[in-house]
Amino acid sequence: ARPRVWVSQPLFGDIIAGLDEHFEVDDTREVTAWSPAQVARKLADADGALVTLNERVGAAEIADAPRLRAVANVGVGYDNLDVAALRARDIVATNTPDVLTETTADMGFALLMAAARRITEGERWLRDGRWTQWSFDTLLGHDVHSTTLGILGMGRIGQGIARRGALGFGMRVLYHNRSRLPDRIERNSRAAWVDLDTLLRAADHLVLVLPYSAATRHLIDAAALAKMKPTATLTNIARGGLVDEDALADALSAGRLAAAALDVFEGEPAVNPRLLALRNVVLTPHVGSASLATRRAMATLAVDNLVAALGRGPRAGDPPTPIAATATGATTAK
Ligand code: GLV
Ligand code: GLV
C-alpha cells in the first residue's frame, strides 16, 4: 500500500497535488483549529505529516502513531515540534528555512519603519476623520536612517535585516546571538556582536528574530525593557512568547518605550487587550513570510521534504531539510 500522509491545513492545491503521485493524501480543505487529540488521531495511521505552526506535535501526539516516519513543518520556526521526542522515535522533522529569509526580513524592516514613523497610527487618525489641517507637529516620530539597529538573533533573517539597515539606511548595526558569528558573516552583514545588556541599551530600533524555546520565553521582560531608550522601538517578527506583553504594555503606556511593532503574540490569534488599546503599537496577524511567491516556495519545499524523507520521488536519495542541520538555533538563551 502507498504511504499515507496527513496535510493539516489548506495550502496551495496545485502544490499539494505533488504528493498524490506518491502517497494516499488526507488533506484539509478548510482552515481548521485541530485539538491535540485530533492531531493524535490524524497521526495514528499516517506515515508522514505536513503541519503548520498551529499544530503541536509532541510525545503525546505521536504516542499512538506507530507508522509515523516524517513530519514536515511549513515554516522556519519549529517550536510547535518536540524535536527530541520525534528524534527518539527516529521520526524525521523538517522545516523551510532559506526560502523565506528575504521576504521575512522585508517585513521586519517594514514593521520597524511603521513603528518609528507612526504609519498605521497616522492612517487610523486620518480614517477617523481627525485630520482638519496640516500642522507642524502632527505625529512626530523617530528617525530610522543613521540610527543604531539592534538585532537579537542573528540567523539568516537577522542577517537580512542587518544588511537592509546598513546598506539601505546607513544604520550602525549591533547584534546579539548566543554565539558570535564568523568574521566573514559579520562583515557581510555589517554587524558587530555585543552582549545582550549593551544591545538593549544602545539600540534605537531593536528587532527580535530569535527562536522561541523555554530558554527564551519572556527574554524581553520588564527588566530588559527598562534598559531600552525611551525613544526606542521594539519589533517582534519571531514568536510572541519572547516578550512579556504586560510588561511591554506598561512600558509603552508609561512612555518608557516609544513604540512597538508586533507580528506575533503569545496567545495568538488572541491579542492582549492592553496592546489592542494602545496607539503606539503596530499590530499584524503573523504574516512575516506572507508573500505569494514565498508561501508557494515554502509549500513546495515542505512537500519536497516529505517526499524525500519518506524515500519517494527523484529526491529519494537526497537528504530532506532536517531541522538538526538547519537550526542556526543560533541564538540567545538568557
Ligand atoms: C513562521 O512564523 C515561521 O516560522 O516560518
Ligand atoms: C532562522 O534560523 C532564520 O532563518 O533566521
TrEMBL record:
<dbReference type="InterPro" id="IPR006140">
    <property type="entry name" value="D-isomer_DH_NAD-bd"/>
</dbReference>
<comment type="similarity">
    <text>Belongs to the D-isomer specific 2-hydroxyacid dehydrogenase family.</text>
</comment>
<keyword id="KW-0520">NAD</keyword>
<dbReference type="InterPro" id="IPR050223">
    <property type="entry name" value="D-isomer_2-hydroxyacid_DH"/>
</dbReference>
<protein>
    <submittedName>
        <fullName>D-glycerate dehydrogenase</fullName>
        <ecNumber>1.1.1.-</ecNumber>
    </submittedName>
</protein>
<dbReference type="GO" id="GO:0016491">
    <property type="term" value="F:oxidoreductase activity"/>
</dbReference>
<dbReference type="InterPro" id="IPR006139">
    <property type="entry name" value="D-isomer_2_OHA_DH_cat_dom"/>
</dbReference>
<dbReference type="InterPro" id="IPR029752">
    <property type="entry name" value="D-isomer_DH_CS1"/>
</dbReference>
<dbReference type="Pfam" id="PF02826">
    <property type="entry name" value="2-Hacid_dh_C"/>
</dbReference>
<dbReference type="InterPro" id="IPR036291">
    <property type="entry name" value="NAD(P)-bd_dom_sf"/>
</dbReference>
<feature type="compositionally biased region" description="Low complexity">
    <location>
        <begin position="323"/>
        <end position="334"/>
    </location>
</feature>
<keyword id="KW-0560">Oxidoreductase</keyword>
<feature type="domain" description="D-isomer specific 2-hydroxyacid dehydrogenase catalytic">
    <location>
        <begin position="29"/>
        <end position="313"/>
    </location>
</feature>
<dbReference type="Pfam" id="PF00389">
    <property type="entry name" value="2-Hacid_dh"/>
</dbReference>
<feature type="region of interest" description="Disordered">
    <location>
        <begin position="311"/>
        <end position="334"/>
    </location>
</feature>
<feature type="domain" description="D-isomer specific 2-hydroxyacid dehydrogenase NAD-binding">
    <location>
        <begin position="109"/>
        <end position="288"/>
    </location>
</feature>
